[in-house]
């Protein structure tokens, strides 16, 4: 299926009387892909805000670590708290576990769909695929909220809606990465992708604020409004998004510098050629040097990040901060500071990795530093609101930094591996494998949290710290390769020989 020029661009050029410039298309692509994936995350975030409304139980005596320091202060407050009745079946004794299963349903289907999305993107128009994914996501997100209007209390209805939403969302990431890869070269990849990858945190923040604001009208609106918004953005993508320069006949501006042109000749992700390329098999793609370590590392990174994504507002509303419990809406708003820190962390990690030319070393450093940050947030985050804000920001920065780096710049680096031989369809498969494996971790984390948190939040944070440790250790081999390359570069007069990415050298036979 050939890609065609979007109808909106055709109309714009007709009214304007001249073709749109190359730079203008680059800006348009950045804005549209940013808004697209931000809207995906906005719909994904809503369940975390609504959790405490569906299951309003306060797990007193299990929320602080060590608990004996706080139990005396909390005694006598349980009877004074006024709780909403919740929403069946999530307000039962096993309600927290059911919410964890809802998260698993969404993320499990999302992860499975991700493995097929890369190949699908090579065979259809990415603009159409992205549009269908966004409109479908909006439809089933709103349908989940419709359970309130239609007074539905069947667990399998909500389970099914989340599974369908996860299926449609799986087409989003491969599509936006491929489109951006068609338009932008390698220069300052880490910084550019770090800034662009802020769409994740921006989507989480906007989703939290919208869902929290809608709670006073009924939790159904916390799903309906983001669902409508992503559908509208999807229609905008259909009308305006140019998939690549070649398919719409745009030529590079003549005033571009030679270095910029050379850089554009080396795309961020190899463009899909019009020639016949043999798609790389699933097992063969796993054997590409560097794919397995990064995929497994992302498994644990996303386990940590998505546990915060789905459970942080619930944790905040169920934890006394400065001796007081926050409302569900206030907890949702406060949780956005984790994502604000994530924006800073993603940009900082990208910039540092560009400066050092060491992706793995940067990611591993952030991951190991996240371990004490998680520990301190658990112990001291409940002292006061100020402490909670500061520690949450730092934790978000350190948790989301390596996650953003691996899913963008590092994944792109693997696409330059010599074993790919410029095969764009191999690249799509590699990208899907890495993020698909990470998404399995994203499903496991929230599910385990649903069960573990009913006993002890301290155990949840122990799980998160252990996951961060394993994620950092999985990068050891690549870190050693990067350090060895740096040391060799200092000993070798020809520094240009060491300018290649250590990612490629990590798994050379």
What share of the residues does DSSP label as strand, in percent?
under 5%
Give the rounded overall mean pLDDT. Answer: 80
Judging from the principal axes of the Cα atoms, what is the shape? Answer: globular
Total helix count?
Answer: 20
Order of helices and strands: HHHHHHHHHHHHHHHHHHHH
Q: Tell me the span between the first and last alpha carbons.
A: 38 Å
Integer-rounded radius of gyration = 23 Å
Number of strands: 0
Assign a percent range to the helix content.
over 70%
| Biggest sheet character | none
Report the structural category: mainly alpha
Low-pLDDT runs of 5+ residues are 59-83, 252-276, 495-509
Family: Belongs to the major facilitator superfamily. Organophosphate:Pi antiporter (OPA) (TC 2.A.1.4) family.
Keywords: Membrane, Sugar transport, Transmembrane, Transmembrane helix, Transport
Pfam family, one: MFS_1
Main location: membrane
């Amino acid at each position: 299926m050939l890609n065609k020029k979007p109808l909106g661009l055709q109309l714009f050029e007709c009214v304007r009387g001249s073709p749109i410039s190359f730079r203008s298309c680059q800006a348009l692509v950045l804005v549209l892909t940013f808004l697209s994936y931000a809207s995906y995350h906005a719909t994904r975030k809503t369940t975390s805000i609504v959790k405490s409304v569906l299951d309003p139980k306060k797990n007193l005596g299990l929320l602080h670590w060590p608990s004996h320091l706080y139990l005396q202060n909390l005694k006598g407050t349980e009877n004074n708290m006024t709780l909403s009745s919740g929403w069946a079946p999530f307000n039962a004794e096993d309600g927290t576990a059911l919410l964890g299963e809802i998260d698993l349903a969404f993320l499990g289907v999302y992860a499975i769909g991700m493995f097929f999305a890369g190949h699908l993107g090579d065979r259809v128009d990415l603009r159409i695929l992205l549009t269908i994914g966004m409109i479908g996501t909006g439809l089933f997100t709103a349908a989940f909220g419709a359970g309130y209007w239609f007074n539905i209390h069947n667990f399998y209805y909500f389970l099914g809606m989340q599974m369908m939403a996860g299926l449609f969302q799986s087409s989003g990431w491969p599509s936006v990465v491929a489109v951006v890869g068609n338009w932008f070269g390698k220069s300052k990849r880490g910084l550019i992708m770090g800034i662009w990858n802020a769409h994740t945190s921006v989507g989480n923040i906007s989703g939290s604020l919208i869902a929290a604001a809608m709670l006073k009208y009924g939790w159904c609106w916390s799903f309906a409004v983001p669902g409508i918004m992503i559908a509208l953005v999807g229609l905008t993508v259909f009308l305006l998004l140019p998939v690549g320069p070649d398919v719409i006949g745009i030529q590079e501006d003549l005033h571009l510098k030679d270095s910029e042109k050379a850089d554009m000749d080396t795309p961020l992700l190899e463009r899909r050629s019009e020639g016949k390329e043999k798609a790389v098999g699933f097992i063969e793609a796993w054997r590409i040097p560097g794919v397995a370590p990064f995929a497994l590392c992302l498994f644990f990174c996303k386990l940590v990040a998505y546990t915060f994504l789905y459970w942080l507002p619930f944790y905040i509303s169920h934890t006394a901060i400065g001796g007081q419990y926050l409302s569900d809406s206030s907890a949702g708003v406060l949780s956005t500071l984790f994502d604000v820190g994530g924006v800073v962390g993603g940009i900082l990690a990208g910039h540092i990795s560009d400066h050092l030319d060491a992706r793995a070393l940067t990611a591993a450093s952030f991951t190991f530093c996240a371990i004490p940050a998680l520990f301190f947030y658990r112990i001291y985050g409940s002292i006061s609101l100020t402490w909670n804000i500061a520690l949450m920001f730092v934790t978000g920065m350190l948790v989301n930094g390596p996650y953003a780096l691996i899913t963008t710049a590092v994944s792109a680096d693997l696409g330059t591996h010599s074993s790919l031989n410029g095969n764009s369809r191999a690249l799509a498969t590699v990208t899907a494998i890495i993020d698909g494996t990470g998404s399995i971790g994203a499903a496991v984390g929230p599910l385990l949290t649903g069960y573990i948190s009913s006993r002890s939040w301290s155990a949840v944070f122990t799980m998160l710290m252990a996951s961060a440790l394993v994620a950092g250790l999985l990068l050891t081999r690549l870190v050693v390769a990067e350090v060895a390359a740096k040391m060799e570069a200092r000993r070798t007069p020809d520094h240009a020989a060491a300018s290649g990415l250590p990612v490629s050298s990590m798994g050379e036979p």
